[in-house]
Amino acid sequence: MNPLFLIPGALVIGGIVFMVIMNKRQKAAKADIDMDQERRNYAAYKNELLLQDFSFLKGWMKGQAIDAFSAGSIPQSTADKVGNLLGDGLKNFALSGTGVKLQRIDTDAFWVLSGKYLHFFTTDAAGEMEEHLVFDNFHLEKARMHDGGILKAQFGLYAKQAEEYLPKVQVITFDVDGKQLSLEVHDRLRYAVDPADMMNVKKQLQDRAKYQVVGERLLTELKAGFSHLKTA
């Protein structure tokens, strides 16, 4: 028998063995992570991420306090209808001088809670800040929030077992001069595996936990300051 015919079979078997080994590593690594304990490290994790992966937020906030921060997104319905929301009321609390577009739904967006002000940043394809909206106490007192489920649109196809790592979304709706503006708040920061950590499952899960602990705190703080935003 030509040994070349054996190569595909060997590759398949090797792939199966690799998956079995990685699944075992993942289960073992997950067993070592106690999320309640991880949440006690919030302050350290927040400072670490603001110094490293999310240091740009400090520049965008121009010295203002960052009490909590997380990822966000723009619903498709908002992007489609945003042209109706470009009245003076919206421009009055937008810091961008060119008006608000909010048309990108496939680039990163971020929320920052600073005292009684909630900041929303959108980015362009290069990751640079595109829009900066500021919602003050008046807008937050009139806002409402509901559960938006699991965010899947940005991630395309994914394995069912990976669903636990997808962001859970809260939709916050603001009243802007009688017009409704809905935006999405994620319960964790978006995590991308560092190529150097591809084989280090434990490191990946530890980083995921860190991103979750920091991201979910924004919703906790927001609902603590504005109890009417609590969802069932």
N- and C-termini, Cα separation: 65 Å
How much of the sequence lies in strands comes to 15-25%
Average pLDDT taken over every residue: 77
Low-confidence stretches: 17-22, 80-100, 155-159
Shape descriptor: globular
Rg computed from alpha carbons, rounded to a whole number of angstroms: 21 Å
Contiguous helical run count:
8
| Physical arrangement of strands within the biggest beta sheet | 4-3-2-1-7-6-5
Protein structure class: alpha+beta
What profile does the largest beta sheet have? 7 strands, antiparallel
The H/E string reads HHHHEHHEEEHEEEH
Number of domains: 1
| Helix percentage | 25-40%
- Strand runs, count: 7
Describe this structure in words.
The N and C termini lie far apart (65 Å). 38% of the residues lie in helices and 22% in strands. With 232 residues, it is α+β, with helices and mostly antiparallel strands. Strand 3 and strand 4 form a beta hairpin. The chain has one domain. The longest helix is centred in the first third of the chain and has 26 residues. Helix 1 packs across helix 8 and helix 3 packs across helix 8.
In short:
With 232 residues, this protein is of the alpha+beta class.
Summarize the topology.
Blueprint: H1 6-31, H2 35-39, H3 42-51, H4 56-61, E1 68-73, H5 76-81, H6 88-92, E2 109-114, E3 117-123, E4 129-135, H7 137-142, E5 144-150, E6 168-176, E7 179-186, H8 201-225
Helix pairs in contact: 1-8, 3-8
Offer a few descriptive terms.
232 residues; alpha+beta; seven-stranded antiparallel β-sheet; 8 helices; 7 strands; globular
